[in-house]
Amino acid sequence: xxxxxxxxxxxxxxxxxxxxxxxxxxxxxxxxxxxxxxxxxxxxxxxxxxxxxxxxxxxxxxxxxxxxxxxxxxxxxxxxxxxxxxxxxxxxxxxxxxxxxxxxxxxxxxxxxxxxxxxxxxxxxxxxxxxxxxxxxxxxxxxxxxxxxxxxxxxxxxxxxxxxxxxxxxxxxxxxxxxxxxxxxxxxxxxxxxxxxxxxxxxxxxxxxxxxxxxxxxxxxxxxxxxxxxxxxxxxxxxxxxxxxxxxxxxxxxxxxxxxxxxxxxxxxxxxxxxxxxxxxxxxxxxxxxxxxxxxxxxxxxxxxxxxxxxxxxxxxxxxxxxxxxxxxxxxxxxxxxxxxxxxxxxxxxxxxxxxxxxxxxxx
Length: 364
Prior knowledge:
This protein is an alpha/beta fold.
């Protein structure tokens, strides 16, 4: 197991170091369970009590902490704890074990180009004419179809599927089971379907005949920018004619679906189970919480934030914070929910008033 001096960690995190900075640690741990070679993560005063329960000699502390009073031999102090976690976990994470070079069980298609320093695990299939960038790491049982391009320093975990013609930038990360470049879900009927009729009339589909569905094939591809990450079992469908695109730096959680023809901007963040229907345009720095749904053919502006479970049924202007089904401004949704909770009490009050009004008056 690798070990790191306190001084090395401070340099990597841009943290202030105190005490014996030559002490070495091997891993990070919660304060109460930390051993003598662990770095205790106590970046908030509420975790201070845990330090006395564990055996840590070194801790990562909040700004202004009195590390000596906490009984430590050394300390690292950070100003933004969660941001420091990103650097620390990067330093301590060895990543998946993928042996250097190309495993003997791999199948490499004609004309494929493998960059210098690339590592490819067992039972992976690289199609005809594929380009793999330098220092890419590809785990076991991955398939990359013909003509795909993968940028330098990619990390592709086990079981990922990348379709034909997909183009992916540098430093791509795909978690196990992700599928990039499957066909879009696109079908049509000879005459107007019940779904089309219902959408036009907002509910009346009675005149549309029952019909069979005919596939519209996907001729486009998927284009991902640099520093894109895709979570486990997420799917990004190829476009019908043009490409489905995702901008630089966008991060996609597990079980997310981005449908055909979507255009996603830079530095977006999509949490688990987000579903985005076809031909949606999404701006830069958009954040979609877990289980957000987006209807097809709409636009979501830059900087939009949608809370978990929101269903976006119409265009969302830049900077809007949304919540609810259908999505409304968050403050509007909160007021509506408060009013909804008051309805039972209001109904009782109305019933009491009705009784009072309906009682016959006593005659003199």
